[in-house]
Design goal:
Helix content: 25-40%
Radius of gyration: 29 Å
Strand content: under 5%
Structural class: mainly alpha
Largest sheet: none
Shape: elongated
Number of strands: 0
Number of helices: 3
């Protein structure tokens, strides 16, 4: 025996028993990305006494090739540096190379703006 589906003309007209979407809440609004600059803003406990504050860092998500990841591991094992320190050194070294070859300004853009403000 085949089961037959009802067509639109066979469906009841009263929508009183249908509450589609009445109890659905709107999704929460996304907040603008804010870079936290303190442990309190990050929701972390205050620094223990005697600990010096570390450098201010920002989050940067990248994907690297497997070979590059292996290189970072190898460099870390040889120099006892963490991946963060290896990445910082590599970016600084590449920026220095670009400045030497003239492909990057001699002074970073943020410092250029400070210098022009000071000159006015």
């Amino acid at each position: 025996m085949t089961q037959r589906t009802r067509t639109a003309s066979e469906l009841p007209d009263d929508d009183e028993d249908i509450n589609v979407g009445d109890d659905v809440k709107a999704p929460p609004k996304k907040r603008a990305a804010v870079t936290p600059n303190s442990r309190k803003q990050l929701g972390r406990p205050e620094r223990r006494l005697g600990r010096k504050p570390g450098p201010v860092r920002v989050m940067m998500n990248v994907r690297v090739l497997l070979e590059t990841d292996d290189l970072v591991t190898e460099i870390g094992e040889e120099t006892s540096m963490g991946p963060q320190d290896v990445a910082d050194a590599a970016i600084a070294h590449y920026a220095a190379y670009l400045r030497r070859t003239g492909k990057l300004p001699k002074t970073p853009k943020g410092k250029q703006a400070e210098q022009t403000d000071d000159a006015s």
